[in-house]
Amino acid sequence: MTDYFCHSDRSRGIPRYFLLRIARDVSASLDMTKRPLRVGSVGSSVLLAITTIAFITEVHAQFTPGILANDSYWGDRKAEFDFYEGQLMREAQLRKCEVLHIFFRERIDPKTFARVDDPTRADAITSVRINQIWSAPIGMFVEQGSITAYWRVDSAALARLTFVGTDSFGNAIKKIDSSGSAFNYVSDTYRDGSTTSPISPLENSFFYDELPMRVRTIDWSKPPVDFEIQLAPTLARFRSDHIEFKAARISWKPIEKTIEVNAQHSAGIDRFVLDRDFPFLIREWQMADGSKLKLKRGLKADYWNYGKEGDRERAFKNPMLQHPD
Fold first, then answer.
1. What's 69's DSSP letter?
2. pLDDT at 192
3. What is the model's pTM?
């Protein structure tokens, strides 16, 4: 949305260059050609290496597959619908609108990202998808936008991120696809035309537009210690922006029935209030630019049965679809 987190393969957790640096430090401590062996020096270096590795592993483990890989939550094939009362900052004014977040799990083609219904397709990947949708009136105009992200269930890695929208003057389409340890970025906007460029993310990097899922996958079993990530800005703009990752810090603390999560980044601080219990719904989101979301209603619904006129109201009245308050 406005200043709405790409990441590389972090399955190994520790950057190779860091391990090489530790190896050089320990090797230097063991080098007796220049000075006698000092056990204390070796022990200190090894202890420092072990301690630092343990710390980094803990930091990188703060985001986990969590809800992404939870079969009991997604096994019924139902989708999560979160309806928010939104106030989006546009032209220095808050614009009231509804914002809808839809999460669901599906098997997709690894190249086209089209849904795969054939259970025998061995090459299909299981993903969790989010659609963030809004339509904000701006005077006599309207801004409409949709952000879609796919995460692989097996690795929790971002597979694709897209934005499509209009500000009533023209359209914008942006897409980021994963290609191993890098990403391909394609942008086509009415203001800047078409551009294509590769993206080489830093270790532990994310896009801002992943945020509504990522904050729900924090490892709550660990003490609430701050951790750092690299954060790229939202795609939800009508210019072909340069993608740049900058340092950001995530902090959180439990408060009675909720958890407060802060994401401090180059543009300011985003503040979230989540349910303390699974599935950790986002109740409130205060964005750095002043935009606000407040959850009106959360549903878990068999969406294929709710596509007709009047079905929205019918779903709202069905107590079996409601998330508990």
1. G
2. 94
3. 0.81
